[in-house]
Design goal:
It is a single chain. This protein has 13 helices and 19 strands. It is an alpha/beta fold. The strands form four sheets. Strands 1, 2, 3, 4, 5, 17, 18 and 19 form an eight-stranded mixed beta sheet that branches. Helix 1 crosses helix 2, helix 4 packs across helix 7 and helix 7 runs parallel beside helix 8. Bound molecules: zinc ion.
Length: 436
């Protein structure tokens, strides 16, 4: 048995924020309370002042690339990057090779995750066979084999009719359909946000409306079917308005924002390095008005989740001309520091609200364990260091890929340790007085 003693516990799902001790026994939270007695056979772990004990963070949008693109990432390296970033669980997208549209692929991913034995991995299945947008995948089979949601991420569900069917079908299981909102004809062959920066640099643009039009379609269909739609990686202010409109009407819609969309804007396309392919992602970095809208949505409760859209790509794939580079950046190992630096230390939101965005809400949306430190629950715990001085460095990252625009950034706040099922799976070497 282990007793975490003296930490500030932030557990909004149970209404806790204060000095509590957490007793862990056989991988579960046995007790939580103030000044718990030290019984025999208990190892006491003193939590140094200033650190925060929270439910394990859950990233509901990552690309682990296995099977098929193991040169970018594997389930094992992705799970290692997750725990290094403070995430005890991740949900992985189906756009692998082959696509995760059947039980065989889902079971393969779960087997690799069990072998890695680090973060919990929740596969997300495809909406359509081969993500081709033609016919529904066998969603019942996917669910049975362990998928927690469906999506055709990388692209939107191709037609309104197929989306309607997916929402009707998943509703029977209480599963959400996660949507990559992008009206394909408006996106065209765009590579950046349609705005001043793209026109200055001669890059083809993608307007915010490419996202919001698809979000409006899907929110309308969620109303029609009473199914649940979750809008992935929202980037445009118009999309946030669409989500607010849907919530106001009672549609079952939730949404997520990535750290890069609430931190960066499209002026990064031109400076400090012009045409840096680590500023190329889909949806694209948008303008200051959009970035500010995302921050506003995080503050006022309209945004439900922060997810990374961790999208590893190999050095050789990214080191080509901007037009030819694949979309996406890594995110698992930078998210916590960006959240603390930009959301907490700026005074925008409380730590309790951050924990809702990073664990309570994703666990509810995906209907997976976690999100709270409840007695009897698995001891998935993240220990955060809100004042740790962090310099982001690709040299110390665990992910197999290094495609991040944040290399060299100095931020305040980071991860001290990550526990999955009561076992320490990550301990930050920069935290010297924590022995766990
Ligand atoms: Zn996507």
């Amino acid at each position: 048995m282990k007793l975490l003693k003296g930490g500030r516990v932030v557990d909004p799902a149970n209404g806790r924020d204060g000095a509590f001790d957490v007793l862990i026994d056989q991988g579960r939270i046995a007790r939580i309370g103030r000044d718990l007695p030290v019984e025999s056979g208990v190892t006491v772990i003193e939590i140094p002042a200033g650190l925060i004990v929270t439910p394990g963070l859950i990233d509901m949008h990552v690309h682990l690339r296995e099977p098929g693109q193991e040169h970018k990432e594997t389930v094992a390296t992705g799970a290692a990057a997750a725990v290094a970033g403070g995430f005890t669980a991740v949900a992985c997208m189906p756009n692998t090779t082959p696509v995760n549209d059947n039980a065989g692929v889902t079971e393969y991913i779960l087997k690799k995750a069990a072998e890695a034995n680090l973060a919990r991995v929740y596969p997300i299945g495809a909406v359509s066979r081969g993500q081709k947008g033609e016919e529904l995948a066998d969603i019942a089979d996917l669910r049975e084999s362990g998928c927690v949601a469906v999506t055709d991420d990388g692209r939107p569900v191709a037609t309104a009719l197929l989306m309607r069917r997916a929402l009707e079908y998943t509703q029977m299981f209480g599963m959400p359909v996660i949507e990559h909102c992008e009206e394909q004809t408006l996106k065209g062959d765009g590579v950046a946000h349609e705005g001043f920066a793209a026109s200055t640099l001669g890059l083809r643009g993608i307007p915010g409306e490419a996202e919001s039009i698809m979000a409006l379609r899907d929110i309308s269909l969620a109303e029609l079917t009473e199914g649940r739609v979750h809008i992935a990686h929202m980037s445009a202010r118009q999309t946030l308005d669409a989500v607010r409109y849907g919530k106001h009407r009672g549609a079952r819609v939730t949404c997520e924002v990535t750290p890069h969309h609430f931190v960066l804007t499209d002026d990064r396309l031109g400076a400090p390095v012009a045409y840096d392919t680590n500023t190329k992602m889909n949806p694209p970095l948008r303008e200051a008005k959009d970035r500010d809208a995302m921050l506003q949505g995080i503050a006022d409760g309209s945004v439900d989740v922060i997810a990374t859209d961790h999208a590893p790509h190999h050095y050789d794939e990214k080191h080509v001309e901007f037009d030819r580079a694949p979309f996406g950046i890594t995110g698992l190992e930078t998210a916590v520091s960006l959240c603390f630096d930009r959301l907490i230390h700026s005074g925008l939101i409380s730590i309790g609200r951050l924990i809702e965005l990073l664990t309570v809400n994703p666990s509810r949306i995906l209907n997976v364990p976690g999100g709270s430190l409840t007695e009897g629950a698995p001891a998935d715990i993240t220990i955060l260091a809100p004042d740790l001085a962090v310099t982001i460095s690709v040299k110390t990252m665990t992910s197999k890929s290094k495609n991040t625009p944040f290399d060299g950034w100095q931020l305040r706040g980071g991860v001290a340790a990550t526990l999955v099922g009561g076992r320490t799976v990550y301990l930050n070497p920069a935290i010297q007085d924590l022995r766990i």
